[in-house]
């Protein structure tokens, strides 16, 4: 097969302030640049869909306050993915190899070989393990459980976004690996809640039910020692009043606020003072900078082999052409996915 000469990709056309608009992205077909020394040509097979992407493109965001450089208008929408190297002008990467890298929303990518992150991990029964059970989402779960919250057997733990890629791993680490006394998940819909309980949670609260606050109170008769926050909004506000004195909250994400900052208004913050709560935000990049990332991956792999972390339903894969990238990505914000949302690129 002859090498491709053009790419189909999505550009960031207009940075959004609130909800994504029809003119936020622009779909284009353009020639691929000529391969230079040290570069590789990659055919993108899978694309990771992450809430963090929304923050990278936020209008008027102060770059000094961000943990990663913001996306610029006119560049390919940033995303991680898995792809096969079709051509290589690098001594470090061979043609035919399968790599994890920052390719973006595109079907083909010309990229410096030194920007590739790691060879893709092969795990039986998984299509894209490097994006799911052994990827950044699971290491993020690991980081919050062990490095930030320091969850112990005697703790009652609550996990919001418990049916998501990160939250579902947190549930299993807390209950199946550590053996926490009580693990309560929060998710949207009966099907998701049933799945979270199947993963090991003692209870799962359906936030789509009108009486979810009362259900949460009943599920926490002794309140909560450790709260893993993925959602924000009303759930975060409610959980501030369900924490034990000297409790800890690890803030991984606040997806309810990414498209609507009005959801980031809280009236329960005096709980932090009166109950001497500790709130700590964290980013998985720190695991890389501290040299802890690979250890986390190795431990996760060991627990998968031991059956403490399941790979069943951990990948929510949507097969779609590149032209549907925004549509698939926005499933994150409507709660349509269970587990890690991944786009399988149709060519």
UniProtKB/TrEMBL annotation:
<dbReference type="InterPro" id="IPR011032">
    <property type="entry name" value="GroES-like_sf"/>
</dbReference>
<dbReference type="Pfam" id="PF00107">
    <property type="entry name" value="ADH_zinc_N"/>
</dbReference>
<dbReference type="InterPro" id="IPR045010">
    <property type="entry name" value="MDR_fam"/>
</dbReference>
<feature type="domain" description="Alcohol dehydrogenase-like C-terminal">
    <location>
        <begin position="165"/>
        <end position="299"/>
    </location>
</feature>
<dbReference type="InterPro" id="IPR013149">
    <property type="entry name" value="ADH-like_C"/>
</dbReference>
<dbReference type="InterPro" id="IPR036291">
    <property type="entry name" value="NAD(P)-bd_dom_sf"/>
</dbReference>
<dbReference type="Pfam" id="PF16884">
    <property type="entry name" value="ADH_N_2"/>
</dbReference>
<protein>
    <recommendedName>
        <fullName>Enoyl reductase (ER) domain-containing protein</fullName>
    </recommendedName>
</protein>
<dbReference type="GO" id="GO:0016628">
    <property type="term" value="F:oxidoreductase activity, acting on the CH-CH group of donors, NAD or NADP as acceptor"/>
</dbReference>
<dbReference type="InterPro" id="IPR041694">
    <property type="entry name" value="ADH_N_2"/>
</dbReference>
<keyword id="KW-0560">Oxidoreductase</keyword>
<feature type="domain" description="Oxidoreductase N-terminal">
    <location>
        <begin position="9"/>
        <end position="116"/>
    </location>
</feature>
